[in-house]
């Protein structure tokens, strides 16, 4: 865990890769809950038998499930002391290069691409790469935009 003493110290790390978070196993329960929450019940996610015979050989996580796990996957990479809040501001670019098969372990790496003044704080663009254990291609690469207020 990288600890920044202030938002200014974080800003000085622009361009740095901050490391990797802990591994997280993707379960069928997570996939089913996400399907229920979003109404996306496509067979490649929730029909175990059909998915086994499908193109991926098993059920796969929704791309948006993988994307939505970014806060969980990044929380152990870095922290900024003295923040009042950090708010998701948006995404610049998102790609899903490889499917995330149920039972896979994923983790995130984070790189600060940019930090600019943005009242009432600073806006950061952080490239998050969600790696899949044993797969050379990531499950998700996203440029997240975050507003930090100290």
Automatic annotation (TrEMBL):
SUPFAM superfamilies: Thioesterase/thiol ester dehydrase-isomerase (SSF54637)
InterPro entries tied to this protein: HotDog_dom_sf (IPR029069), MaoC-like_dom (IPR002539), NodN-like (IPR039375)
Signal sequence, renumbered to the chain: none
Every MaoC-like domain range: 13-129
Family from the record: Belongs to the enoyl-CoA hydratase/isomerase family.
Protein name: Acyl dehydratase
Species assigned in the record: Umezawaea tangerina
Source species taxonomy: Bacteria, Bacillati, Actinomycetota, Actinomycetes, Pseudonocardiales
């Amino acid at each position: 865990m990288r600890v920044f003493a202030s938002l200014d110290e974080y800003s000085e790390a622009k361009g740095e890769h901050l490391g990797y978070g802990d591994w997280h196993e993707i379960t069928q329960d997570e996939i089913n809950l996400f399907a229920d929450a979003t109404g996306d019940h496509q067979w490649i996610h929730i029909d175990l038998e059909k998915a086994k015979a499908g193109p991926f050989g098993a059920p796969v996580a929704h791309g948006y499930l993988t994307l939505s796990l970014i806060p969980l996957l990044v929380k152990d990479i870095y922290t900024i002391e003295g923040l009042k809040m950090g708010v998701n501001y948006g995404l610049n670019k998102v790609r899903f290069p490889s499917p995330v098969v149920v039972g896979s372990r994923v983790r995130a790496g984070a790189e600060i691409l940019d930090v600019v003044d943005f009242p009432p704080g600073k806006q950061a663009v952080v490239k998050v790469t969600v790696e899949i254990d044993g797969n050379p291609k990531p499950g998700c690469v996203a440029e997240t935009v975050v507003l930090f207020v100290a």
